[in-house]
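Annotated sample (chain length 309).
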Amino acid sequence: MEHRIFTRLCFFLLIIPCGVVAQGKFPIKNVHGTARIKMEDEWGREYTKQKALEEAKLDALYNCFGEQVHRESNYYTNSDHGDSFVSRSSTNLRGVWIKTCGEPKYTEDTEVRNGINEIYITCHINGKARKLPPLAEINTKFLKCPNLNCEAQSYRFFDLEKMYLYFVSAADGYLSIFLQENDQVYRILPSEAMCEKKMCNAAKVIANKEYFLFDNQQQPPYFDVTLDPLELFLPDGYNEILNTIIIVFTQSKQSFSAPPLDAPTYDHLFEGYIPSTLTAKEFNKWIGDQKMADPMMQLKYYPITITNK
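Output written by the structure step:
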């Protein structure tokens, strides 16, 4: 049975004051983030807010922890006032975002350039972060067929297309994949079939092995279970929507402890469980607690766009 899904995005992001709130080899610090982004014609307001969150988060990590020596930064100017912003890859920063504190705040202003009104959105957010320990390299690609030649450009899919995920890691570890749909977050790996085979905590992945996930023709099937394709579709009245795929990877098995699939309640979060379905707020609470306990946990968000053909 194929899964039919659609979704909107949520992201978390920031900039600095760094106060230590936990001790140890990788102390957790308070961070405050701000970013101001121009709303491009093809983006829309919600997507621009997400971009502002991204840039503010990366800038916060840079100001608190710096970046790798080899890092190249791309600067661009967003206003007549000469405000410059830097686009940084999170894989090259020395810090990792842990959790959001409170709700992000947005403001909107307008500038006139060449007789055209341009809209800018500013995001302010508070959160916690820590210095990044050495992590195993992981690589994820989004495909339109179970082959690397079918990679989706800019994470864009058409209505009714199938989505496959390519994953490889430089170390053995444990993988879980989530889908955010509006305010709900669903775990799509491990699948229900994997849970029936007592593999509900996480998918054990082998170092340097290439996985083409959600290909039900894979032989032998990964994890001894067939993973059905994910079919993306637009709901009635929409020309374009955004999905969020969330990749969670760690080398520590203790980071994953799942409850029964029929008991996805908020109370389980306090016991370290991974519910199969929970709200975005509950997911953020759970993932923040997990990352505080496990510095090796990696969390990656991918915005997937679905459009009409």
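Annotation: The longest helix spans residues 45-65.
Annotation: Helices lie at 45-65, 192-196, 280-293.
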